[in-house]
Q: What sequence folds into this?
């Protein structure tokens, strides 16, 4: 009963954590799909700006923050010129975004203009980058609520393993006792059978002696 209760508790924690992640992951998948749709030409169109439009600059500043780069246009252009730029975004370590980065991102996320539908009017590529930044930010905040639940789940699983091991140990001991009882029962049954056989032999011998 204890093992069953512990198993139910572990499953409930896992389901709770997964529910939280399920809220953020579709946004992330959608953002990555938007990035996947971009090509070198889309990126080049952003890079050619000598003086980028306001929304292009805002989006690229947010991207620079996530990639640990300076937020000036020269640094942004350098990032855009990196042949691995899109791969870096797609393979970004989303589970380990520093709190300091999220604090810096907050002013962009809170900016009412920092929305894909608004950015799209200026640049298709920056719309996808805006989606990516917002999705990563959402995921990071959800992940922070999920991580303690995962730790709790890990602890519950460790406790469950101990309970199950103890249960298996008790079951093994019980099996050993049951086997011994069965062995004694078999011995008893055999001795009863031997006794009955002996009594029959005695009765037969007595009958023969009488006839003699």
A:
């Amino acid at each position: 009963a204890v093992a069953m209760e512990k198993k139910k508790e572990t499953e409930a924690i896992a389901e709770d954590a997964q529910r939280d992640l399920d809220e953020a992951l579709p946004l992330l998948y959608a953002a990555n799909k938007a990035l996947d749709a971009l090509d070198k030409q889309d990126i080049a169109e952003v890079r050619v700006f000598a003086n980028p439009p306001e929304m292009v600059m805002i989006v690229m500043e947010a991207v620079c923050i996530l990639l640990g780069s300076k937020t000036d246009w020269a640094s942004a252009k350098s990032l855009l010129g990196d042949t691995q730029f899109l791969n870096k975004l797609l393979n970004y370590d989303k589970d380990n975004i520093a709190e300091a980065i999220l604090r810096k991102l907050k002013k962009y996320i809170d900016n009412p203009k920092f929305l894909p539908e608004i950015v799209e009017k200026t640049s298709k590529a920056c719309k996808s980058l805006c989606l990516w930044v917002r999705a990563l930010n959402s995921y990071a905040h959800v992940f922070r609520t999920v991580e303690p639940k995962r730790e709790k789940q890990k602890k519950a699983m460790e406790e469950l393993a101990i309970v199950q091991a103890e249960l298996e140990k008790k079951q093994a001991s019980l099996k050993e006792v049951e086997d011994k009882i069965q062995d004694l029962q078999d011995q008893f049954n055999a001795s009863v059978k031997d006794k009955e056989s002996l009594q029959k032999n005695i009765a037969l011998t007595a009958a023969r002696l009488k006839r003699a």
Residues 35 and 89 are 8 Å apart (CA to CA). Residues 124-211 form the longest helix (88 residues).
